[in-house]
């Protein structure tokens, strides 16, 4: 029994160690599996990490390339920005210059506007002065037109009176010459007076008897008397002798003519006509200051000794002055 028991004990011990070794082998196998799985996972993880790193490296390379491109682009943009900045500075400088020029121009414009305003005021004043001057000119022109009409009328009157004298002298068969411009009628002294005498000859009185009524009636006619201001009897002498003696002789001869036809013994004129003549007739002596010349320029002594009958229209001096003004205006 004891031997059986010993065998049984050795058998149990042997079974125990077999079970234990199996257990250890199983555990070792499990450990190996775990280790293998861990290594596998590690390798797989490493491969994934490697792939991930490679992917990241590729991405990084791409990003670096992109970064390089961006840096290059940024550099280009910086250069462009620098260029643009310089251009902007240049433009700003130009703008500042233009602003300064604009300010100067504005100041000049303001000065010109001020000057223009002043000129406008002056121009307006000048326009007012011109308008006033034009009004004065129009008024003067109106007066000149009226005066010209008066002149034309008086010129027409003179011409008409001269023609009346010519016609009346011809009708009376009087051998007289009426100046077409002035209406003056001239008689040589030899017809009226002896040489160096102021007493009328009978032939002179006879001439005056036939001439004066026609002359006076024409000038004092109803048509002409309102225009006649003066009848002038004017004596002239030749160049012989001194001035004063010839002045006295020429005056005395003119006075003799006037005294004759205003005397009571002159019947060719009415008392009323004589009275009218006293207010307008004058007797003047000119000595030798207005001689008559020959064509060769020498003095015609006989023709210079003469008596002239002249007439002056009313306002003739004023008309002569107006005529001068009108001629200057023309």
UniProtKB/TrEMBL annotation:
- Residues passing through the membrane, by range: 20-40
GO CC terms, sorted: membrane
- Gene3D superfamilies (UniProt xref): OmpA-like domain (3.30.1330.60)
| CDD domains found in the cross-reference section | OmpA_C-like
Note whether Membrane occurs among the keywords: yes
User: Where would I find the OmpA-like domain in this sequence?
Assistant: 180-315
What the entry lists under PANTHER family is as follows: LIPOPROTEIN YIAD-RELATED (PTHR30329:SF21), STATOR ELEMENT OF FLAGELLAR MOTOR COMPLEX (PTHR30329)
- Tell me the protein's name: OmpA family protein
The scientific name of the source species is: Candidatus Onthenecus intestinigallinarum
């Amino acid at each position: 029994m004891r031997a059986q028991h010993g065998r049984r004990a050795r058998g149990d011990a042997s079974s125990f160690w077999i079970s234990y070794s199996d257990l250890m082998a199983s555990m070792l196998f499990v450990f190996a599996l775990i280790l293998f799985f861990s290594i596998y996972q590690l390798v797989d993880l490493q491969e994934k990490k490697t792939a991930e790193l490679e992917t990241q490296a590729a991405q990084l390379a791409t990003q670096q390339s992109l970064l390089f491109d961006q840096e290059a682009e940024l550099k280009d943009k910086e250069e462009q920005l620098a260029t643009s900045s310089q251009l902007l500075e240049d433009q700003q400088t130009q703008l500042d210059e233009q602003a300064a020029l604009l300010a100067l121009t504005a100041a000049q414009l303001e000065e010109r506007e001020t000057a223009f305003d002043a000129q406008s005021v002056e121009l307006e004043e000048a326009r007012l002065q011109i308008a006033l001057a034009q009004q004065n000119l129009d008024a003067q022109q109106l007066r000149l037109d009226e005066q010209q009409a008066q002149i034309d009328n008086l010129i027409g009157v003179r011409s008409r009176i001269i023609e009346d004298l010519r016609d009346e002298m011809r009708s009376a068969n009087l051998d007289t010459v009426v100046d077409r411009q002035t209406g003056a009628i001239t008689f040589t002294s030899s017809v009226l007076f002896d040489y160096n005498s102021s007493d009328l000859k009978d032939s002179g009185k006879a001439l005056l008897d036939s001439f004066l009524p026609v002359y006076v009636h024409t000038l004092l006619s109803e048509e002409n008397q309102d225009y006649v201001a003066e009848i002038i009897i004017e004596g002239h002498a030749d160049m012989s002798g001194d001035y004063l003696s010839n002045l006295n002789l020429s005056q005395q001869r003119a006075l003799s003519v006037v005294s004759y036809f205003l005397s009571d013994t002159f019947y060719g004129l009415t008392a009323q006509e004589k009275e009218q003549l006293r207010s307008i007739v004058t007797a003047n002596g000119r000595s030798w200051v207005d001689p008559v010349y020959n064509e060769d320029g020498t003095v015609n002594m006989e023709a210079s000794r003469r008596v002239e009958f002249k007439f002056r229209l009313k306002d003739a001096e004023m008309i002569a002055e107006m005529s001068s003004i009108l001629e200057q205006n023309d």
